[in-house]
């Protein structure tokens, strides 16, 4: 039986720029089940990042309800929201967002520092996750010493180290050539095969077709393309 893990009801997020009102999300309702692989497509500015940021607790709607893994985000306070982000969600961004002055093992450990795991255990687990993505021999390198594909693999290891139920990737292959992009998509697919709910934002129709369902954003509104 499909079990819903993400439920949005009439979610609206508007931005005001002077007298202009931008409806980044315009009454979006959506249900995602545990273990699904969802692609979100749509033109630039259509609201894709806003949607995944609201699901991931990085942004808050003006109205509507967002329930993720039984947490009602709509009226959650900031401290609880950061625990939610750390425990339930893994995020991968187009621009990797790694700390340039830290080694990659330090970057991957960071979420465990925030959740109070002991130093030896943090290093051990970060090393395991970097081994999983094939970077076990590069632990003490800084992001600038790695290729962009390797930096994205590091970001994936960091997103997974807290064993999140949901992995959100916002244009994860946007800064990579197609071969490196393919490698990232294969790893994401494997993570989904192991049971993690996966949401991938993408402009690329070929990438979107790998998903179970394709959701399309258009001017803040959501429609379903493939079921
Ligand atoms: N902080 C902000 N202030 C004002 N407007 C914003 C802000 N963030 C997003 N917007 C607007 O909200 C709309 C949706 O933006 P969003 O970033 O979600 O689009 P997107 O589909 O992810 O685009 P892209 O494909 O370029 O990443 C856009 O019109 C954008 O300009
Ligand atoms: Mg975006």
Walk me through this protein's architecture.
- The chain has helices spanning 48-55, 78-88, 104-114, 119-132, 148-160, 178-193, 205-208, and strands at 4-17, 20-33, 37-41, 63-68, 71-72, 89-93, 166-170, 197-201, 213-218, 221-226.
- The protein has a single domain (4-226), classed as P-loop containing nucleotide triphosphate hydrolases (Rossmann fold, 3-Layer(aba) Sandwich).
- α3 (104-114) packs parallel to α5.
- With 227 residues, the protein is an alpha/beta fold.
- It is globular, with a radius of gyration of 17 Å.
- Helices cover 34% and strands 30% of the residues.
- The protein is built from seven helices and ten strands.
- Strands 6-7-8-3-9-10 form a six-stranded mixed sheet, with helices on both faces. Strands 2-1-4-5 form a four-stranded antiparallel sheet, with helices on one face.
- Adenosine-5'-triphosphate binds at residues 15, 17, 22, 24, 42, 44-50, 217.
In short:
The chain has a single domain, classed as 3-Layer(aba) Sandwich (Rossmann fold).
Derived from helix and strand composition plus strand pairing, the structural class reads alpha/beta
Shape: globular
Number of domains: 1
Largest sheet: 6 strands, mixed
Q: List the helices and strands in order.
A: EEEHEEHEHHHEHEHEE
The CATH topology turns out to be Rossmann fold
Compute the number of helices. Answer: 7
Q: Give the ligands present.
A: adenosine-5'-triphosphate, magnesium ion
The count of DSSP E runs of length 2 or more, i.e. the number of strands, is 10
Please give the order of strands in the largest beta sheet: 6-7-8-3-9-10
Strand content: 25-35%
Estimated radius of gyration: 17 Å
- CATH C-level class: Alpha Beta
Helix content range of the residues, please?
25-40%
Question: How much is the average pLDDT?
Answer: 95
C-alpha termini separation = 16 Å
Instruction: Tell me the CATH superfamily.
Output: P-loop containing nucleotide triphosphate hydrolases
List unreliable stretches of 5+ residues: none
């Amino acid at each position: 039986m499909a079990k819903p893990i993400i439920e949005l009801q009439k979610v609206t997020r508007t931005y005001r720029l002077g007298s202009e009102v931008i409806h980044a999300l315009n009454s979006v309702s959506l249900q995602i089940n545990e273990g699904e692989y969802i692609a979100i497509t749509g033109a630039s500015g259509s609201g894709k990042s806003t949607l995944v940021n609201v699901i991931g607790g990085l942004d808050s709607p003006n109205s509507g309800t967002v329930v993720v893994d039984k947490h009602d985000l709509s009226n959650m306070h900031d401290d609880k929201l950061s625990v939610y982000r750390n425990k339930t969600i893994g995020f991968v961004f187009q621009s990797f967002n790694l700390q340039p002055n830290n080694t990659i093992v330090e970057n991957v450990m960071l979420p465990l520092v925030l959740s109070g795991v002991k130093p030896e255990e943090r290093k051990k687990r970060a090393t395991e996750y970097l081994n999983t993505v094939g970077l076990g021999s590069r632990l003490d390198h800084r992001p600038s010493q790695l290729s962009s594909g390797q930096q994205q693999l590091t970001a994936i290891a960091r997103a997974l180290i807290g064993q999140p139920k949901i992995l959100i990737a916002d244009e994860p292959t946007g800064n990579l050539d197609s071969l490196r992009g393919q490698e990232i998509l294969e790893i994401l697919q494997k993570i989904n095969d192991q049971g993690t709910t996966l949401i991938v934002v993408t402009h690329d129709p070929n990438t979107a077709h790998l998903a179970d369902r394709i959701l399309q954003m258009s001017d803040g509104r959501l429609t379903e393309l493939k079921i």
